[in-house]
Specification:
- It contains two helices and seven strands, in the order ββββαββαβ.
- The protein has helices at residues 55-64, 106-109, and strands at residues 5-11, 16-19, 25-38, 44-54, 70-83, 89-102, 123-124.
- The chain has a domain at 5-37 and 44-120: Nucleic acid-binding proteins (OB fold (Dihydrolipoamide Acetyltransferase, E2P)).
- The protein starts with a strand and ends in a 48-residue tail after the last strand.
- By secondary structure, it is mainly beta.
């Protein structure tokens, strides 16, 4: 089974940081995400999704992200049941953020001057290594006097790849 979600969208409001009764930090926010396809009229539909981040991830989101910021989320979907004010049984669907990434640079996001954030393409995944967020094109390596530099995926372009025409050529 697989339960994996990858989203890029804009924050609908400032994230809300709270603590559970046991002192665990939890941050909730809504994310506006456009659908990949357009309607017949040419307009794209937008989904407004609830996202929850826990512990250090929660503090990171509440500290560095604000209403309107473009944010990348990598996580999974969880459901929970509750009883509303009218005593009706309801189900809530939430995205649990495992990785959160900056998608745009500080200058383009209009972030506040007091922020510690230093640029695009950064992420926070608790103890995990930062993930790549393609916010800026990769720099081309400098000419090194005719010596061949090792191949780097991040400095390549689409011309470096070839299309595989049939399933028989697949390496797996």
């Amino acid at each position: 089974m697989l339960n994996k979600v990858v989203l890029v969208g804009r924050l609908c409001a400032d994230p809300e940081l709270r603590q559970t009764t046991s002192g665990t930090q939890v941050c909730t926010f809504r994310l506006a995400v456009q659908r990949a396809y357009a309607t017949r009229g040419g307009e794209r539909q937008t989904d407004f999704l609830s996202v929850v981040a826990w512990r250090q991830q929660a503090e990171f989101v509440s500290r560095f992200f604000h209403k309107g910021n473009l944010i990348g989320i990598d996580g999974h979907i969880e459901t929970r049941s509750y009883t509303d004010r009218n005593n009706q049984q309801r189900t809530a669907f939430e995205i649990i953020a495992e990785n959160v990434s900056f998608i745009e640079s500080k200058a383009s996001s209009g972030a506040s001057a007091g922020s510690d954030y230093s640029g695009g393409g950064s992420s926070f995944a608790g103890n995990a290594a930062p993930s790549y967020a393609p916010s800026q094109p990769a720099a081309r390596p400098a000419d090194n006097g005719g010596q061949q530099s090792p191949s780097s995926f991040s400095s390549g372009d689409f011309g470096d790849f070839q299309e595989i025409d049939s399933d028989e050529d697949l390496p797996f």
